[in-house]
Each structure stands twice: as structure tokens, then as C-alpha cells.
Write a structure and sequence with these properties.
By secondary structure, the protein is of the alpha+beta class. The chain has 13 helices and 10 strands. It is elongated. The two termini are 32 Å apart.
């Protein structure tokens, strides 16, 4: 169940939108500062300005390595005809969002392992550059890029879902058990355990600055970084586990089971002012717009808010509605799990249910959430007995 992509869009690669999350700018600045003041000056032969210029270049190449890592996942996913929604660079690395889960354990394994393989290949390539480059800051930069790509590849293979290693673990368990949900639950639990270990090691490194763990991690700053990454992975693993529980809760339910057959309608020639009054009177925030007895569109209170308040009285609802051809709709037989995923992906709160071209019901996101809550409560009460 995907969340909308956030961040600054900087272009497309292989037709895939590329985004920079706000945290990536902070990491770029910190990495550049660290290289220019701590790493590159270890070898003399350049001026401070040259160190800074080289540090910026190394940081750009590092971010390029992250993009190539995610492209490794994306290219394999595209080979399996799985659309790639976007690639986003975060503080911890990158994330390639695919539109749906792989169909087989082998697909999952190949998609997950592709990223670390790319990082290992980049590490070997930069190591080759280090071997032939003349002694100096450029050679040291190549060595640093080699080390960081090798570490990136190895770190991502650790069995902490949703990292690549956690997805490899899910693929293996999936292949053995033939049960995707069970494999996801096991991988998510493994990810939570791994995340807790990272958080504890990070806290230990912060509090025990003279310990071997602290020195190995690079002092308190390395411990803080490790704990921060562990916290993020813990949140992601817990979210994944929750998603599986939700999917299991909704299994067997179709759109027809939870839709409301009461479909509120408004005429297309009423004003936005009159429509807002109707919303205030009934509390219904989504209406089918009709004309000549036929459904011609869909309107919500959110769409009305795009118009200035002073124009409401002189603007018809037809100007604000979504035309019928552009409406996101579902059929009565669609599984509720896929309906919820579509709502989240399209960022909509209501979807009409169409049968043979006619709107026969309406599904709201909050109604799905109520069903989840009710079924989870019922399950807990049944289990208690």
C-alpha cells in the first residue's frame, strides 16, 4: 500500500521520475563537509579550495551511485513488466517504488539482489580507478567511493526488512512456504529485531564513547546515525507488518460487501454556493453530478475549495466536477484490498462502484477503516475465548 511520492522532482531516468527528499540535501552538505575537512586532506598536494571542489564532485558521484543502485532494482522490475512509480533519494540512501508486489519468489529475489550487485560492481570499478590513479586526493577519493559502495552493498544485504537483504529473506521464505503474507510477516519481524539491535548499538556508542563499539562506529556521531537509521527501519518494518495484517483482515471482502448503496446526487446546474449548503445540511462530502437523469461526473467539497469564495454563487457545480470519463471507479467484484491500495495510490477518499455503466454505490476510505477496526476487534475477542 503505497504512499504518495514526496520530494523535489529533478528529472526522469528510463522514464522513471527521480525525486530528492529534503533530507538528501542535508546528507549532501554533511558528506561534502566531511570529505573536504577530514578525508581528502589526509593526503597533501592540493589547496583547500581544490579539496572543496573535489568533495562536491565526490558527493555528486556518490549520489549517482545511489541512483544506479535503485536503477538496478528498477530495471529488473521493468523486465518483469512491473511498473516503477518513482526513485527517491532519502537520508539513508534510495528507494525505488514499484506499482505492485512481484508475482513469484524468484522475481522478488532478483529485484532485491540487483541493487547490491550494482553497488559491488561500482565498488570494484572505483577500486580499479584507485589502483591506476596517481597518488593524491583524486586517488583517495576513488578509494573512498570504492569503500562506501562496497559498504552500501553489504549493509543492504543485512536481513532487515525493508532493506534489500530483508526482501531477499522474504523471497527465500516465500519460496519455501509458498505463502507471500507469511513470508512478509517473518521478514518484517526480522527487520524489527535488526532495527532494535541497531538502535541499541547506536545508543551504546553514544553513551560509552571510549568503548570498542563506539570507536568502530566512528564515535558518538556514528552511533547517533546508526540509531537514527535503526529507528527508520523499525518504523518501516512495523508498517509493513501492519499492512499484511490489514490485507489478511480484508481478505474475502469485495467492493459490493462494504459499499453504501445510498448514492447522493446533485444537479449539474446548481451553484457551488448551493452545493456547499447541501454538504453542510447532509454532511455528505462526495456527490454524483447528474444531468438529464444520467450521471455526468463526481464532485467533492475539496474540489470546490479550488475556487475563490466570491465566485461560488456564480459558478455551477459542473465547473468543479470530475467528468465521468476521468472518475476513479471500481466494480462490485473488486477486492477491498485493491480498492484501498488504489485510493492510497490515487490519493482519493471516495470511489464510486460502477456496474454496466451505472453508479450503484459509493465506497469511502473511512468506511474501509471502520471495517478493519471492527474485524480486528472481533478477531481479538474470538481469540480471547
Amino acid at each position: 500500500m503505497q504512499q504518495p511520492t514526496t520530494g523535489l522532482r529533478i528529472g526522469r531516468i528510463l522514464g522513471i521520475p527521480l525525486y530528492l527528499h529534503a533530507t538528501s540535501f542535508l546528507i549532501f552538505a554533511l558528506l561534502t563537509f566531511f570529505l573536504a575537512t577530514q578525508i581528502l586532506p589526509l593526503q597533501s598536494g592540493a589547496t583547500p579550495m581544490q579539496y572543496w571542489i573535489l568533495a562536491v564532485g565526490v558527493s555528486i558521484v556518490f549520489f549517482g551511485s545511489l541512483i544506479l543502485h535503485e536503477l538496478g532494482h528498477s530495471i529488473i522490475a521493468l523486465r518483469y513488466k512491473i511498473p516503477v512509480v518513482s526513485i527517491t533519494l532519502f537520508f539513508f540512501g534510495g528507494l525505488a517504488r514499484i506499482a505492485r508486489d512481484p508475482e513469484t519468489a524468484l522475481q522478488e529475489f532478483n529485484i532485491a539482489i540487483a541493487g547490491p550487485i550494482v553497488s559491488f560492481m561500482l565498488g570494484a570499478a572505483f577500486l580499479g580507478i584507485y589502483a591506476v590513479a596517481p597518488s593524491g586526493p583524486l586517488q583517495l577519493a576513488a578509494l573512498y567511493l570504492s569503500e562506501i559502495n562496497l559498504i552500501l552493498g553489504a549493509f543492504n544485504l543485512l536481513p532487515g526488512f525493508p532493506m534489500d537483504g530483508g526482501r531477499v529473506l522474504r523471497a527465500i521464505v516465500w519460496g519455501i512456504t509458498k505463502n507471500f503474507d507469511r513470508a512478509t510477516q517473518i521478514a518484517s519481524r526480522s527487520g524489527q529485531i535488526f532495527a532494535y539491535m541497531m538502535i541499541m548499538l547506536g545508543i551504546w556508542a553514544i553513551m560509552e564513547r571510549d568503548s570498542g563499539v563506539s570507536r568502530f562506529l566512528g564515535g558518538w556521531s556514528g552511533g547517533l546515525w546508526l540509531a537514527f537509521i535503526g529507528w527508520y527501519l523499525l518504523s518501516a518494518a512495523q508498517e509493513t507488518y501492519t499492512q499484511v495484517a490489514i490485507r489478511n483482515t480484508l481478505t474475502g471482502l469485495s467492493a459490493a460487501d462494504i459499499m453504501s448503496p445510498d448514492v447522493p446526487t446533485v444537479a449539474r446546474d446548481i451553484s457551488l454556493e448551493d452545493y456547499v449548503q447541501e454538504v453542510l445540511r447532509t454532511g455528505r462530502r462526495c456527490h454524483v453530478v447528474t444531468g438529464n437523469g444520467m450521471a455526468v461526473g463526481l464532485v467533492t467539497l475539496h474540489q470546490v475549495q479550488h475556487f475563490p469564495r466570491e465566485e461560488w454563487a456564480n459558478t455551477s457545480i459542473q465547473a468543479a466536477m470530475v467528468p465521468q470519463g476521468a472518475i476513479q471507479w471500481v466494480t462490485p467484484n473488486d477486492p477491498v484490498t485493491s480498492v484501498l491500495e488504489r485510493m492510497q495510490r490515487e490519493d482519493v477518499n471516495q470511489m464510486p462502484v460502477l456496474q454496466e455503466g451505472h453508479i450503484i454505490g459509493m465506497i469511502a476510505r473511512d468506511s474501509i477503516l471502520r471495517v478493519i477496526q471492527t474485524r480486528l476487534q472481533a478477531h481479538r475477542q474470538y481469540a480471547a475465548k
